[in-house]
Amino acid sequence: MQENNVERLVIVAPENVEVRLAGILAKAGLVPCGVFHAGADVLGALVPAGALVLTTYRLPDMTGDELARRLNGDCEVLMIAPQDYEQEELPENVLVLRNPISQDMLVQAIRTLDHCRARIESFRVKAERLARTLEERKVIDRAKGRLMDTLHLSESEAHYRIQKQSMDSGRRIVEIAREILESQEIAAS
Question: What residues form DSSP beta bridges with 140?
Fold first, then answer.
């Protein structure tokens, strides 16, 4: 895990298990931002959004899958469950590792989940940027259409007019386009 992502790792396990898990992760350079001994403790704490919660199936006050449901998908949950655990319908933010699990497998699972979380976040940012760009292009195209209809310009002339006004005023093209769409009259200048 990269240094800036370590702060998002949380352990929720009974006391005897929590110490062992924290030790395994510390050897791999993964220091959790929080360690809790019961599900209610983590639910009442300020856990970072998008945290990776490492938990066991059996907690003192609830099960690991109950904790995952009560976290409402705000966190990714990696649950270590007994070999005979019969998987119910789990939320999509839960991954189950069956015990016994090797230390290397646990560390690799955490690193893999963190890598996937980072990739998903980068895709989300790109998707938002693309959606914003598409929306801005629609505004610019509508403004060009309005100039074309009102002033009887070609598309390239309308685009040039918007672009020139943008350059002359030092503002973004989409701002000029929004002004054109909001204005009641378009000056023939």
Answer: none
SS3 77: strand
CATH 3.40.50.2300 fits 3-101, yes or no: yes
Listed in sequence order, the residues at least 6 apart from 53 whose beta carbon sits closer than 8 Å to its beta carbon are 10, 11, 12, 42, 47, 67, 68, 71, 75, 76, 77, 78
Could you give the percent of the chain with pLDDT greater than 70? 93
Which residues in the chain are classed under CATH 3.40.50.2300?
3-101
- Please give the class, per CATH, of domain 128-182: mainly alpha
| Predicted confidence (pLDDT) per residue in 52-108, tens digit | 899 999 999 999 888 988 887 778 889 999 988 887 788 788 889 998 989 999 999
Continuous segment of H or E residues that includes residue 94? strand 94-98
Which segment of 44-58, 120-134, 150-164 scores lowest on mean pLDDT?
44-58
Domain with CATH 1.10.10.10 in the chain: 128-182
DSSP 8-state symbol, 99: S
